[in-house]
Request: fold
Amino acid sequence: MDQEVLVDSNVYIDLLRSGRDPAKAIFDRYESVDVVTCGMVQLEVLRGVKLPKHRQWLEDTFSLMMNVPTDNQLWAEAIDLAWKMDRSGRTIPAQDLLISACALSVDAAIHTFDRHFLEVPGLTVLTDPF
Reply:
């Protein structure tokens, strides 16, 4: 795969709950492509971290990735995506719309266990387990 990959928060959370190192698992899996993140994924992952040293370690991991900035243009794209999807009868959570807009803006696939992303037009979704 040559396409960049945005790893969804549920992958990080699943890896953490199973006692695995998310950085190792993700970078081993995608060693030949750029791994992408965004503020919403970081928020969803870091809010549940209990220990400051674990939070710092995950923040350091995120800093190694390309971060998709959520500027006004990206918000407009997320709003447009939400509007179009809602009108076609496909309603997904706002966080997933924002994450989708981030991935689409840099032409990245998304690795997730969340089936909502399969509804997003034009988004390449990877759902296989780690």
